[in-house]
Amino acid sequence: MREINTIVAKSSSLKVLTLAFFCSLFSLQTIAQDYEKITEREEWKNSDYRSKAVSIIKNNVRSNQIILNRKAERMLLNLPLQEKLYDEGKVIITSEIVYDTLESGDVEMNYLYEISYQCINPNGDSDDYPAGTYNYSESNSCRAICNLTKQFLNEDCKEFFPEGKDIDILITSTTDAQAIAGIEYKGEYGDFRYTPVTFDNIPTRLTLFSNDIVTTNSELAFLRAQSVKDFLQKSINALGETNNKYELETWQIEELGSHYRRSSIRILVHNPFEEKIEMMVQNMKATDTDIDINIPEVEPTNKNAFVLILSNEKYQYSFPDVDYAANDSKVFREYCTKILGIPERHIRLLENPTRNEIQKDGLDWLKNLMKVTNGTGNIIIYYTGYGIVDYENLPYIIPADAKSLTTTKWGKSQTDDKEAIPLTKKEVKRFLEECMSLEEMCTQFDKVPANSLTVFCDAGFDGKLRDGNTLITYPRNTGKTKGMRLRGNAVIFCAADFTQTVYGFNDKQHGFFTYYLLKTLRENMGNLDFGQLFDEIKDAVSFESSLQGKQQIPTIIVGGKVKDTWSKHKLK
After folding, report:
1. Total domains, the chain
2. How would you class 130 by CB atoms within 10 Å of its CB: exposed for 0-12, middle for 13-18, buried for 19 or more?
3. Do residues 214 and 184 touch, judged by C-beta distance below 8 A?
4. Which residues lie below 8 Å from residue 342, measured CB to CB, with a gap of 6+?
5. How much is the pLDDT for 421?
6. Which among 181, 440, 544, 548 has most CB atoms closer than 10 A?
């Protein structure tokens, strides 16, 4: 019996040990799986943070392009008379992010600055080099692009030139086919012995000493390029702490005329954003309150809600882009699904829609849905873009295809009120025929059986851009007007009173109104009534905009049917 008991005891111990082993193994597997999930989640979050940081930088560079063009226009207008450029020529400026694939397969995010002069009419007057000259200052066009580059790189673009970065600088200079009679090189840029240069797309080497006589167009074009290089080396502070590689590209154009004698500059900064992206990612991790990332998600149970998002960032004709409008609408759509629990198929996003698309693909889509849902449907319309008011201060949204002849006036970059081009009352009236009034949009649903109609409008109606610059001025009734009157059940959340400017929140890459709308929805998971929602948005936008020296106070407009009950409405 003792032996049997011993065997049983040993067998039991073995079972316990075996069970313990497998439990331990299972536990280790579970821990490994949990660790893997945590790692995947952290990698996803890091990727989300990085995407947000990259998006912010892209928007900054895009805004920089607009700023450079505006400043260039102002600087060129203010040139002394003898240095002014002819109307038949224009300066072309590029400030953008470009990508390059390295030999390792990695993708590099670079910054490109490019500036050139173009003569619109080859048979007209030109501001390029007079015959037989090579110093940049002897050409009005080359002097202009050099001075603009000095201003931009020393002030407006210096953040894109971090210390220690590799920079490729390409200077292109041309001559026409006129024969060289003999020009003395005064030695301003030193002596050159077997200096590499590309002439007519052929790599070559050039030797030229002080007091030599220039006898070929290849030598003349080289000196023009060297003059620009000398200017950059002496005048651009941003290039003093970077690793610069210059390339001189010269051409002889087989035609005669001063407009074939010019220079251009192309500067490529390799990987200037990586340190900034990493710093932004770390800051986001430390706060983790950014509204664009790690959005909480609920089940899609809000099945009676239908959403139309109208996103006008880019217009087809002469309007400037609306800062952050595309990001506003994209993130608003995410909040509709993740925070408000609206099924994705119930949401329609129209990017840069025309007036016809707004009606046919948007409003008619909603009306048809309301008919088949028998009055149980809840409509949400979100608009971001430009707006305008008529003489009686009634608001209109501007579709992407607005193309009245008066829009040719709008295309000029305006910098303040005194430079804005005034429109007459008649011109405004003709333009409004291409737009859609908020009243027209809402009253279409008066006879449609909808449970509710909610409109969020992040648009300004005062004729200004989101950066505060004036787009247009036009006559408006300064006396008492009837205002907007809605008979139905519409509730319109407006980013500001129709006389106020609606601004962009540059640090957050959103409009002020949209940012605080989304932030409030996130903090409350959408579980608050309209009265609370409006009060929180109004307080936050009013305070933050005032803190930044911009006054923007949201307002609300309600239809007659819900004037006493709107504040208790909810989005879900």
Report:
1. 2
2. exposed
3. yes
4. 300, 302, 303, 305, 306, 307, 336, 572
5. 57
6. 544
Clarify whether residues 374 and 306 are in a common domain.
yes
Task: For Cα atoms 88, 90, 91, give the angle at the middle one, nearest 5 degrees.
Answer: 160
Handedness of CA 192, 197, 200, 204 (dihedral sign): positive
Of 61, 280, 51, give the one whose Cα is nearest residue 160.
61
DSSP 462: S
The answer to whether residues 305 and 170 belong to one domain is: no
E strand or H helix at 66, and its extent? Answer: helix 2-77
Question: What is the 3-state composition of the chain as percent helix, strand, coil, each rounded to the nearest 5?
Answer: 40, 25, 35
What's the pLDDT at 30? 44
The reply to whether 241 and 324 lie within a common domain is no
Q: Are 85 and 99 in contact (CB under 8 A)?
A: no
What span, in angstroms and rounded, lies between the C-alpha atoms of 78 and 191? 37
**Whole-prediction pTM value?**
0.63
| Residue-by-residue DSSP string for 40-60 | HHHHHHHHHHHHHHHHHHHHH
Cα–Cα distance measured from residue 271 to residue 109, given in angstroms and rounded to the nearest whole number? 5
Assigned domain for 4 exists = no
pLDDT tens profile 466-513:
988 888 887 777 666 666 788 889 999 999 999 899 999 988 889 999
**Domain with 321 in it: what CATH number?**
3.40.50.1460
